[in-house]
């Protein structure tokens, strides 16, 4: 049994105004569109606020070098957002942010296979975005991960796709093309050994 009821808790401040206990600030807040909200107006907003709170906790654990704790928090965030029945652009953006943070955490721990799985999940979650700069950067990250897994043929394919994507976007003299080219050289050298 699940409930979609949102309870509001308010406390009186010294000056007589009310303060939202869930957010820890005055109840007037702005939503994504810049419009004023006077309270949490949906289950989606509450769920996303809880997920973002867990993400902040994971960042503090990461700063304390508690990689297992940070990973556990990010996986909880991912499970919550994946279980959500609410489908919106904001939910999709939060999920991408969680997947990206989890991928970098796994990559830092050299958990290449898990990082690959998480990054592929991120890439496939919005296939229509595969031509924007962030998605192309994801292909370059995937090529790097695959290179570290000694999957040179697959790494070469994704590296070339990233290079082609950056050139298509018109990033002629940026670091992105340089990074892609350097990675492709590393992959080719490793494949020839």
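^ Assign residues to that structure.
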């Amino acid at each position: 049994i699940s409930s979609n009821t949102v309870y509001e808790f308010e406390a009186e401040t010294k000056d007589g105004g009310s303060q939202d206990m869930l957010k820890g600030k005055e109840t007037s807040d702005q939503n994504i569109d810049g419009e004023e909200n006077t309270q949490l107006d949906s289950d989606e907003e509450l769920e996303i606020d809880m997920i973002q709170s867990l993400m902040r906790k994971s960042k503090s654990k990461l700063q304390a070098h508690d990689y297992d704790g940070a990973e556990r928090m990010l996986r909880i965030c991912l499970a919550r957002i994946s279980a959500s029945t609410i489908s919106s652009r904001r939910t999709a953006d939060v999920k991408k942010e969680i997947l990206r943070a989890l991928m970098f955490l796994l990559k830092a721990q050299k958990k290449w296979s898990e990082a690959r799985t998480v990054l592929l999940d991120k890439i496939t979650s919005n296939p229509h975005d595969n031509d924007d700069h962030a998605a192309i950067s994801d292909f370059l990250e995937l090529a790097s991960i695959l290179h570290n897994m000694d999957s040179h043929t697959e790494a070469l394919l994704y590296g070339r796709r990233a290079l082609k994507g950056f050139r298509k976007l018109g990033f002629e003299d940026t670091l992105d093309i340089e990074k892609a080219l350097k990675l492709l050289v590393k992959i080719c050298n490793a494949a020839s050994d």
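The beta strands are 10-12, 18-20, 25-26, 29-30, 36-37.
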